[in-house]
Design brief:
The chain contains 14 helices and nine strands. It is an alpha/beta fold. It folds into two domains: 161 residues, Rossmann fold (3-Layer(aba) Sandwich), CATH 3.40.50.720; 124 residues, N-(1-d-carboxylethyl)-l-norvaline Dehydrogenase, domain 2. The strands form two sheets. The protein has a six-stranded parallel beta sheet, with helices on both faces. Strand 2, helix 2 and strand 3 form a beta-alpha-beta unit. The mean pLDDT is 92. The structure holds nicotinamide-adenine-dinucleotide.
Length: 299
């Protein structure tokens, strides 16, 4: 199938490569042209604008930082809307805003095409291996048409509901995930201050009842115990965007989210330190600072 792909960053890059390897013919675009070099070597062709991508594609994917970029690519000058053909399907893989993607859908659908939001979870490693969890919002018949392509990207493809609902599920997931991580950071700092070895505490967390319910990700030992926050798998800036978007949705829905609000404040403290481009686990440094300890692997 002729497939367009816009935004070949940390997530989009490997996802686009997997689509090429699955036999699709790709047309690619990114404001950073160099991000598309490896794909062009694999046979993808370059298009100068989203409009040109749309004109050459039956299905168009975007994996962009957030709602502002999605809006610009979809509806801006030389955007998808100017080139999209009737019957084509636009799939946004970014983590964005349900309200924003519904607005995009209204405009794109008025041009005779379809829109699906399909945010993903599983990080760069999941994108690389094609093992992402994909949360999909869109009309059932349209989602079924693109399901085989989504299955190339992820081992789990869940149809959540109408357009925008994939993003609702993703934002709720990320708000829960980030809030929980920050609570773990605070607890780890207390454990170390109270004399427990950080590795031992992690083992306890994994093996006691809570850890059995909650899988602690492998990169916590990697990044935190080694103190390496500068090879980001998911940046603090992107976490900031996601939790802010979840809180924006909560306000729209009139649902108070006191815990996520506190997590957001902690993330903002990190952003204010200039850590937006560091791994989102860098907020660990704030917990350490308040506790007056350093949580590191003593091995
Ligand atoms: P990234 O910054 O590495 O990639 C974004 C890409 O979009 C870059 O290559 C950038 O040049 C390009 N871009 C930006 N504006 C553009 C425009 N107007 N036109 C064309 N290209 C443009 O970010 P990422 O980590 O790949 O994240 C992409 C999306 O996936 C985000 O919405 C993020 O929240 C989500 N996400 C990321 C992860 C992760 O672990 N990194 C995990 C799940 C979901």
């Amino acid at each position: 199938m002729n497939v367009g792909f816009i935004g070949l960053g940390k997530m989009g890059g490997p996802m686009a490569r997997n689509l090429i390897n699955a036999g699709h013919t790709l047309v690619v675009n990114d404001v950073n042209e160099a991000a598309t070099a490896a794909h062009r070597e694999l046979g993808a062709t370059w298009a100068a604008t989203p409009r040109e991508v749309a004109g050459k594609s039956e299905v168009i994917f975007t994996s962009l930082p957030g709602p502002a970029e999605v809006d610009a690519v979809a509806l801006g000058g030389d955007g998808l809307i100017e080139g999209i053909t009737p019957g084509a399907i636009y799939v946004d893989l970014s983590t964005g805003s349900p309200t924003a993607i519904r607005r995009v859908a209204e405009r794109i659908e008025a041009a005779g095409a379809h829109v699906v939001d399909a945010p993903v979870s599983g990080g760069v490693q999941g994108a690389d291996k094609g093992t992402l969890a994909v949360m999909v919002g869109g009309a059932p018949e349209i989602v079924e048409r693109i399901r085989p392509m989504l299955e190339v990207l992820g081992g789990s493809v869940v149809h959540v509901g109408d357009v925008g609902s994939g993003t609702v599920a993703k934002l709720v997931h990320n708000a829960i995930s980030m809030t929980t991580r920050i609570v773990i950071q605070e607890g780890m700092a207390l454990a170390v201050k109270a004399g427990v070895d950080a590795n031992v505490m992690l083992t306890v967390l994994r093996e006691a009842s809570f850890g059995k319910q909650l899988v602690l990700t492998d990169h916590i030992p990697d990044l935190v115990l080694k103190g390496d926050f500068d090879h980001p798998r998911f940046s603090l800036g992107l976490s900031h965007k996601d939790v802010s978007l979840a809180l924006e949705l909560a306000r729209e829905m009139e649902v108070p989210m006191a815990m996520a609000q506190m997590a957001d404040e902690e993330i903002r403290r990190g952003i204010d330190r200039g850590w937006a481009d560091r791994d989102n686990l860098v907020t660990f440094l704030l917990a350490e600072e308040r506790a007056g300890v350093v949580v590191r692997d003593k091995k």
